[in-house]
Specification:
The chain is an alpha/beta fold. It is built from eleven helices and 16 strands. The protein folds into two domains: about 130 residues, translation initiation factor eif-2b, domain 1 (Four Helix Bundle (Hemerythrin (Met), subunit A)); about 200 residues, Rossmann fold. The radius of gyration is 20 Å and the shape is globular.
């Protein structure tokens, strides 16, 4: 299985997702600044993958440190953590991983510099391992919701490219397919950066899972014609009440699914849940470069000077969600109670 991000021979190796599907270009990074820039420019993307990337970036900062004392080292790591936190504002997994690395370095502050470097490297590797393992468990649990013959609509990319391995929503689809269920996947193109057409279709074709690419504005019509059995998407942050921030266009799909009596599912590991945020109203929404809307692969498609809105995410209210699939179980309403109960257990 292709890995979007790996630690190889003391370097962070990523598959440049801005080049897919036309070119498989692997980049190697030797310092945390390069990793931060790769996150900003979406060379690596997907909430779980961003958590792994941040952890690896911090581990690179530790590896490269020339600090002579533990205090100097910890100050360096704090600066690296701050740089990582300034990359993208919406994905909860990014901040979860940064906080986990910060807590560890604080807890280990009495160690010598070389030992601090070692524990941070080991923690980053553990974060990556845990994410893939969680996605595999999530996929196996979610596959129970998929029936033989289902036509599944998904949005954006939620496969191995978006995670430490295996995938979230696409992991559920992959698990069902590996169980021998005859399914068909409808893939939203996902404007403006086309993660559906460029990335999800690429992954599905590699695994020979039957799929059809559609434009974003075809989904409602297909639902009305009875062509969609269920919708499964990922999440970048889940509020305490079950509201979900995900790739722009997700809310539209949820409304259409509700109108057409199509079950709408979220698939995400538990680090995506942010209990510090009561509802979707408090989730920060990233506004990206207008050029992503006005240009495709460098080709201008809109008149110069037109005003542009480019929010990268939207909020799907919990009332529109049938269930949230996690590695610890499938959570159904009331989410405010059952999400907390799930994590406590």
């Amino acid at each position: 299985m292709i890995k979007a991000i790996e630690w190889v021979d003391g370097k962070v190796r990523i598959l440049d997702q801005t080049k897919l599907p036309l070119k498989e270009d692997y980049l190697e990074f030797t310092n945390p600044h390069q990793v931060a820039e790769a996150i900003k420019s979406m060379k690596v993307r997907g909430a779980p993958a961003l958590g792994v990337a941040a952890a690896f970036g911090i581990a690179l900062g530790a590896k490269n440190s020339t600090a002579k004392t533990s205090d100097q080292f910890i100050d360096e790591i704090k600066r690296v953590c701050e740089e990582m936190s300034q990359t993208r504002p919406t994905a909860a997994n990014l901040f979860w991983a940064i906080q986990r690395m910060k807590r560890l370095v604080h807890k280990s502050k009495n160690l010598c510099v070389e030992d601090l470097k070692k524990v941070l490297y080991e923690e980053a590797m553990e974060i990556a391992r845990e994410d893939e393992e969680a996605n595999r468990r999530l996929g196996a649990l979610g596959a129970a919701l998929i029936e033989d013959g289902d036509n599944i609509l998904t949005h954006c990319n939620t496969g191995t490219l978006a995670t430490g391995g295996y995938g979230t929503a696409l992991g559920v689809i992959r698990a069902a397919w590996n169980q021998g269920k005859k399914i068909h996947v409808y893939v939203d193109e996902t404007r403006p950066l086309l993660q559906g057409s460029r990335l999800t279709c690429w992954e599905l074709m590699k695994e020979k899972i039957p799929a059809t690419l559609i434009t974003d504005n075809m989904a409602g019509f297909l639902m009305s014609m009875g062509e969609i059995s269920k919708v499964i998407v990922g999440a970048d942050r889940i509020a305490a009440n079950g509201d979900v921030a995900n790739k722009i266009g997700t809310y539209t799909l949820a409304v259409l699914a509700k109108e057409n009596n199509v079950p709408f599912y979220i698939a995400a590991p538990t680090p995506t849940i942010d209990f510090n945020i009561p509802s979707g109203k408090q989730i920060p929404i990233e506004e990206r470069n207008p050029r992503e809307v006005t240009h495709i692969f460098g080709q201008q498609i809109a008149p110069s000077g037109i005003s542009i809105a480019n929010p990268a995410f939207d909020i799907t209210p919990h009332e529109l969600i049938e269930a949230i699939i996690t590695e610890k179980g499938i959570v159904r309403p009331p989410f405010e109670i059952n999400l907390e109960k799930l994590v406590r257990e």
